[in-house]
Every structure is written in structure tokens, then in C-alpha cells.
Amino acid sequence: MSSAPRSEPWSVESVISSLPPPHPQTGTPSPVPFFHLLERLKTTKREGWRRFGIRYGESIADHMYRMSILTMLAPAGLAARLDVARCTKMALVHDMAEALVGDITPVDGVAKGEKSRREAAAMDYLTRSLLGHVGDGDEGRGLREIWHEYEAGETLEAQFVHDVDKLELVLQMMEYERRHHGHLDLGEFSWVARRIVLPEVRLWCDEVLLERARFWREIEAGQRAGAGAAAAAAAVVGDVVASPVPTAVADDTATGAREPTMAEYHGAHPAR
């Protein structure tokens, strides 16, 4: 039996205690402690990209910000069936728990149930401990309610925001590939496109994937052209090496030519 110490289970308290002081004040009528904690969404990076060496990638807040803008641009036919303002709010709240939990990815080895437990505990802390005494507590309850709606994924608004979440990832995937000029293939993330449900969002995603396909065709064409040019250059070099050097070039003494001395040069080209 192993004598290695067992790690303590994750808790909000352990995360808070690890933060530099001062720690957030709970039970206060002021929302300022909550405002400060939100900064962690700006500084915590999305982890999936870091596995590919993208050191200065997007933060959680970056991701949620673009999602919120995308929801505002819902196509008219879909927007008529949605509470668009609620979708925008949901996009801004859906990853809020990651201010404490961090961005847990499928390769991190955290079970889905454990991930859900951590995120629920984080939202309880944010919306009850930090916001529960702000006003009558309705704003905190409202944030938790809209987060829970997203997690349940049953309303049309939640389905739309889930689809936008996937679309935003596909957009970012292609942008990182383009930024690295085709030296980075992030195609393993493209599977999320197949899980987009609403046809309006699928149309957006299909356009992005077509753009990506054109980009990679151009990269491959450039590589083939570069390889052809390199082969042609190698052939020219080979011909030059194999060709005999003309006698007059190889030995100027054959024509009686020689390089002038410095004295002769300056005599022929007096200084001005």
C-alpha cells in the first residue's frame, strides 16, 4: 500500500487561500470584492492552446467577450425566436466559474462530475458569498440562474450560446494557424464543428471552415512551389559545378592580364 500523502480534494477555500492577500471579503453589501475577483478571468489563459506552445494566447475573458458580440449578431430568423439580451448575458457568464476553477480541458484527467462540482461550488461562492448581500441579492441569484440554464442546455438560448461557444473556438483555431503561417496545425479542434446544432450557426461555421480549407491549400501550393524552386536551383548549381571553367577565367595570365597594384590604380584614378 502506497504511503504517499493523498492530495486534498479541490475546494474554493483552498483556491482563495492560495491567492495573494488581501483575500475577497464575503458577506459585504459592496460588489467591489467580486469586481476584483473577475480580474482572474482576464489573466487566466485558455489551456487547450498552451499544449501547442501558444504562450500568449487568449484569456477566458477574451473568449467570452467575442462570444457575447456573436450573440448580438444572431441572424434575423433566429433572433426572432430568441431573447438575444439573455444570450449575451449568458455568454458573459457561462465560464465565470473558471475565475476559481481554471480552464479544465478533457486532457486534464478531471472527471466530468468533478468538474461540474467544482464549477457549481465556484458559482455559489461568487453569487452567494460575494454578491448575496449586494442589494437584495437578486443580481447574484440572477447570475447563478443564467449559468445553470447554460449548463442544463435545454432552452433555445442555451443551445444557441453552446453553439456560439464552439464557433468561437473554430474561429480562434484558424486565427492561430494563420498567425503561425501554416507552421501550426490545430485541426484536432475542428471536431467541435460537428456538434453545432442550430443551422444558422452551422452556416457561420461552414464559412469559417471553407476559409480554413482555402488557407491550407494556399500553404500547400506555396510549399510545392518552394520545393520546385529549390530543386531547380539545385539542378542549376549541379550544372555549374559540372561545367569546365573557361581557361581565360581560370588563369588571367593566359591573356597577359593581371590585377593592377595599388600605386598603378591610384595613378590611373587620382584622388579628387
What would you say this structure looks like, in words?
This protein is mostly helical and 272 residues long. The protein is 61% helix and 0% strand. α4 (60-72) packs across α10 (156-179), α6 (84-93) crosses α9 (138-152) and α10 packs parallel to α11 (199-242). The longest helix has 44 residues, at 199-242.
Unreliable segments (pLDDT under 50, ≥5 consecutive)?
245-272
What integer value in Å does the Rg equal?
31 Å
Strand-pairing-aware structural class: mainly alpha
Q: What is the global morphology?
A: globular
Q: How many alpha or pi helices?
A: 13
Total strands:
0
What's the story with the biggest beta sheet? none
Series of secondary-structure elements, N-terminal to C-terminal: HHHHHHHHHHHHH
- Mean pLDDT comes to 85
Termini separation (Å)? 94 Å
Strand-residue fraction? under 5%
- The share of residues in helices is 55-70%
List keywords for this structure.
mainly alpha, single chain, globular, 272 residues
Detail the topology: elements first, then pairings:
Layout: H1 12-18, H2 32-43, H3 47-50, H4 60-72, H5 76-79, H6 84-93, H7 98-101, H8 112-130, H9 138-152, H10 156-179, H11 199-242, H12 247-250, H13 262-268
Helix pairs in contact: 4-6, 4-10, 6-9, 6-10, 8-9, 9-10, 10-11
In short:
This protein has 272 residues and is an all-alpha fold. It has helices at residues 12-18, 32-43, 47-50, 60-72, 76-79, 84-93, 98-101, 112-130, 138-152, 156-179, 199-242, 247-250, 262-268.
